[in-house]
Amino acid sequence: MGGFSLANRLPLADHVSCVGRFRFSMTTIIIGDIHGCSREFTALLHKVAPTSDDRLVLLGDLLNKGPDPVGVLETFESLDCVCLLGNHDFDHLRWKAGGHPKPESVLTRKLMPPPCYERYLELAGGMALYFENKELIAVHGGLLNGVALPEQPVEVITGDVNLDSNWKDQIILDRPLVAGHKRYSPNQCEPYIVEGKFYGIDTGCVYGGCLTALGMPSGKFVQVRAARVYSD
User: Which domain holds residue 104?
Assistant: First the structure.
């Protein structure tokens, strides 16, 4: 991958638990909703150890609700990766444009020095709405059936507007879809997988669940358990 260095990093806390003990190889690595959980984000990057042969994709919602937005931003800036625009990232951009922010966006801004927050806004403004290659499509939120990717409504693809919960089972695409935004499984640490069709990898890290990385096309995943519950 380039950019992410293990040097000058604090040792991982003992209570940050890693699940999964294999190495992704020459693949697309997709990481679910981070939500300001920098400790778990760093631990997961150590675990998957992306290389220059890999493509790293973050599904968005980098900040809000978690304890360390500055740490997440600094790690993100060190990576060679694609980050998709999530509904919480979209909320900050809408606030900048004069809209009314979510309470968690207001809190995140208070936690960040102004220059740091301005850097985040600049980066959020360049986040993609979707990622695709020959093996998969990835979005933060959802998709409408029968609508081409470039024509999908921003509010839908970012998750700013929630679709009926059945959308994921009804979507028809020519490749597997990877999405974040919602915890679709009864056990929040368990990704929602319909093999070869849909991979829901928001596993509720900020709510005390796990942060998940999915390797494609293998469909294997690695997780780091949250150190604690950060938000309810």
Answer: 18-225
Q: Is residue 166 part of a domain?
A: yes
Which has the closest alpha carbon to 19: 232, 231, 228, 226?
A: 226
Exposure of 79 by Cβ count < 10 A (0-12 exposed, 13-18 middle, 19+ buried)?
middle
pLDDT mean values, one per 10 residues, the chain (232 residues)? 33 38 67 98 96 95 98 97 98 97 97 98 97 96 96 97 94 96 95 95 98 95 97 91
Q: Crossing angle, helix 114-125 and helix 87-96, to 10 degrees? A: 110
Residue at 123 is within a domain: yes
Q: Count of domains in the chain?
A: 1
Asked if residue 175 belongs to a domain, the reply is yes
CA angle 69, 74, 76 (to 5 degrees): 95
Residue 180, SS3 per DSSP:
coil
Residue carrying structure tokens 């040097």: 7
For tokens 């207001």, what's the residue?
Answer: 106
